[in-house]
Amino acid sequence: MKARKIIAAVLAVTLLGCILTACGNNTDENSPVPDVTNSAANNTDYAIILKTLSNDFWAKMKTGIEEEAKKLGVKVDIFAAQNEEDTAGQLTILENCLAKNYKAIGVAPLSPTNLINGIVQANENGIYVMNIDEKIDIDSLRNAGGSVIAFATTDNEAVGKKGAEFIINKLGESGGEVAIIEGKAGNASGESRKTGATKAFEDADDIELVASQPADWDRQKALDTATGYLQMYPQLKAIYCCNDTMALGALQAVINAGKLGKIIIVGTDGSAEALESVKAGQLDATVAQDPAEIGAASLRKMVDAVTNKPKIDPNTAPQTIPVDSYIVTKENVK
Q: In degrees, to the nearest 5, what angle opens at C-alpha 191 toward C-alphas 164 and 274?
């Protein structure tokens, strides 16, 4: 009888230990990630939804936001889509954020329209929305009854113009054939860069723009596009690319063709890999943006709105907050 009692006691202790171990194992790498909608204890006033964090540009923006939050003494939650094609997923992130107690949300939309419905819902909940880097279709947003407090970005048409002007000046009086590798068709920042570069090339003497095609911000697609350019236009002298990822793809095409140093390649963004390539004398230049400042300026504007409480009004035109860009070459790269 005593033996049975001892066995029962041992089993009870063992069972209790298992229960406690299971309850305490919530940091295991296989445990589920908390859902953004689980907001009961949320005490953060600000959220920012970026395009993606796989690109150096957006990683730098995240850092800029976090550093500015420390300066301002505020907390900010930062989210991002899985990739630059995940328009529906990005909208879901925004919709989930509406269940939390945020007072202002910043968004860098993957397309001019994919977040419009979510922004309208945010406004209806009294939440201020800040437009970051990629411009929302303001007319469509207004017609849907939504608004944003401001738009922080680089002047992307000026970015494209600077890249093209660098090429024009480097070619000099001899001029020659040039090409553009565009971003994703319909993407506002990419279209603006293409427009700026196209105008500069067309206005220049002795420059012939022979091709301009999208490569969807993708390195492999840019490599394929540039390879096609080199085959179709054997006299090609330069390629302007609307981001650095594509510029590095175009650079590989030039290397594969044995033409490194003979064809000028200029990218856009000032990404870490592109800067290293410029240092190495491969990429000729990149038009560097300041994503950290774009993010910081966006957060400052959000905090200002929460503090001063302007009326949320679809008929009020959003303020544009410009952040400058600059050419980085081997001579000034850091």
A: 55
pTM for the full model?
0.71
Residue 220 neighbours by CB under 8 Å, 6+ apart: 249
Distance, CA of 80 to CA of 78 (rounded, Å)? 7
Tens digit of each residue's pLDDT (9 = 90 or more) over 276-318:
999 999 999 999 999 999 999 999 999 999 999 999 999 999 9
CA–CA dist 196, 190 (Å, integer): 10
Query: Are residues 261 and 236 in contact, defined by beta-carbon separation less than 8 angstroms?
Result: no
As its CATH architecture, domain 46-148+291-322 has 3-Layer(aba) Sandwich (3.40)
Q: 70-103 pLDDT, tens per residue?
A: 999 999 999 999 998 899 999 999 999 999 989 9
The CA-based dihedral angle spanning residues 256, 262, 268, 273, taken in that order and rounded to the nearest 10 degrees: 50
**Domain spanning 156-288, CATH architecture:** 3-Layer(aba) Sandwich (3.40)
Residues of each domain in the chain carrying CATH 3.40.50.2300: 46-148+291-322, 156-288
Q: Which tokens belong to 232?
A: 């179709």
